[in-house]
């Protein structure tokens, strides 16, 4: 009996020295083993266990998510982002993976020429054909970078990107699109109107149609439209369109400028060709 006990102890020691995987026969068992090692901060063994689970089933979402978390703890952030991106490609509503991806992905995107590429794509067509892989790896992280800027052009491009991402990647991007449009509206200046009046008109028309009935948007829209009309009427931005009577006739706007109670001669200008 004593000899049997000695043999059992020897077997246990051998199993532990081999990494503790001898009894892990299924992907679920490898996954549970990985979680145990992760909780013990033994990240190297946790990494091995999660990878063995994924060798058995590459679509094992939970194992891949925790593999990403293990890589994060090991300081391999770019590799961790790749794993969370794979989770989101197969499970777009995986909230925890989205939050992790959201925290780190913008750090690894290079804007530069990529900004102009997407600006040209979205100017030519509202929903360009892109792969979901490119969406998660480049377009959506770029949009998050642009969301942190304070200029109309960047924020409007971010809104286009988020709209595409909302429709093709994950519904989690919906509130980001609205935030980008609001930021673009708040940062719209006469310089933007002067540089690209067609783009500004398209933007104002879009926001008015989509959000014009919402109370929180109405004051922002009023101020933006006032600045736009001020530029079109040749008035100082601070004056806006105050003291101006506007009448719409099809695509033409007739203006009457009222100063000191006197109505000057009406003139017209076109909002569209």
From TrEMBL:
Q: Which InterPro entries does the entry link to?
A: TPR-like_helical_dom_sf, TPR_rpt, Ycf3/AcsC/BcsC/TPR_MFPF
Under the heading Pfam families, the entry gives: TPR_11
Q: Which domain of life is it from?
A: Bacteria
Presence of the UniProt keyword Repeat in the record: yes
What does the UniProt keyword field contain? Repeat, TPR repeat
Per the UniProt entry, what species is this protein from, by scientific name?
A: Candidatus Caldatribacterium saccharofermentans
Q: Where are the TPR repeats?
A: 27-60
**Which PROSITE patterns does the UniProt record give?**
PROKAR_LIPOPROTEIN (PS51257), TPR (PS50005), TPR_REGION (PS50293)
User: What is the designated name of this protein?
Assistant: Tetratricopeptide repeat protein
């Amino acid at each position: 009996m004593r000899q049997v006990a000695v043999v059992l102890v020897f077997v246990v020691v051998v199993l532990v020295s081999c990494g503790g995987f001898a009894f892990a026969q299924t992907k679920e068992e490898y996954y549970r083993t990985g979680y145990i090692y992760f909780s013990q901060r033994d990240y190297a063994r946790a990494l091995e266990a999660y990878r063995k689970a994924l060798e058995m089933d590459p679509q094992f979402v939970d194992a891949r998510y925790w593999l990403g978390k293990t890589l994060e703890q090991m300081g391999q952030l770019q590799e961790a982002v790749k794993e969370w991106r794979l989770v989101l490609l197969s499970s777009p509503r995986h909230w925890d993976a989205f939050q992790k991806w959201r925290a780190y992905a913008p750090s690894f995107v290079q804007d530069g020429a990529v900004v102009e590429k997407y600006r040209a794509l979205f100017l030519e067509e509202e929903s360009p054909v892109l792969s979901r892989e490119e969406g998660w790896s480049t377009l959506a992280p770029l949009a998050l970078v642009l969301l942190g800027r304070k200029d109309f052009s960047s924020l409007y491009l971010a809104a286009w990107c988020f709209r595409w991402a909302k429709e093709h990647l994950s519904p989690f991007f919906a509130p980001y699109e609205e935030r980008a449009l609001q930021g673009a509206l708040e940062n719209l200046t006469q310089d933007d109107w002067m540089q690209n009046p067609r783009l500004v008109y398209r933007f104002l028309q879009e926001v008015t149609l989509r959000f014009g009935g919402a109370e929180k948007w109405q004051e922002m829209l009023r101020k933006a439209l006032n600045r736009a009309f001020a530029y079109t009427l040749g008035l100082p931005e601070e004056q806006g369109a105050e003291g101006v009577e506007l009448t719409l006739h099809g695509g033409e706007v007739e203006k009457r400028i009222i100063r000191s109670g006197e109505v000057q001669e009406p003139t017209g200008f076109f909002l569209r060709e």
